[in-house]
TrEMBL record:
Keywords: Transferase. This is Alpha-1,2-mannosyltransferase ktr1. GO terms for biological process: cell wall mannoprotein biosynthetic process; protein N-linked glycosylation. The keyword Transferase applies. Pfam families: Glyco_transf_15 (PF01793). GO terms for cellular component: Golgi apparatus; membrane. The keyword Transferase applies. GO terms for molecular function: alpha-1,2-mannosyltransferase activity. It comes from the Eukaryota.
Amino acid sequence: YNGCHFWSNFEIVDLSFYRSSAYQQYFDHLDRAGGFFYERWGDAPVHSTAAALFLNASQIHYFDDIGYFHPSVLSCPRGARTRGSCVCDETKSFVQNGKCTVLYKQARQAILSPDSPEPAHKGPVNHVQAGLQGML
């Protein structure tokens, strides 16, 4: 695990995703492994990993226009400097400037626009095949 995940203190989810057989099996496996109790696995990496495993890139939306603050993480909303009422130091924005967000945006662009002349992401990208979407 590379440490990249969506910070899920704000997320909008169709609950049928969490109720799906695929997600339930995934969650049960993690629960049996004991990491929630012994390793303090959190909801953000668990949800992010599930989204990467079971959803198509077009089913995931990253809210980059909403600010977020957690004691170790700061994300300035897109266009923060142009908003008069927003106080956010973009130079300290871990999420916007961090490698995880950059890699996510590059991979998403490559998946959703594979015919672009210069794909941003050159490595392998795994995503759910169309036939599996009916399971969710």
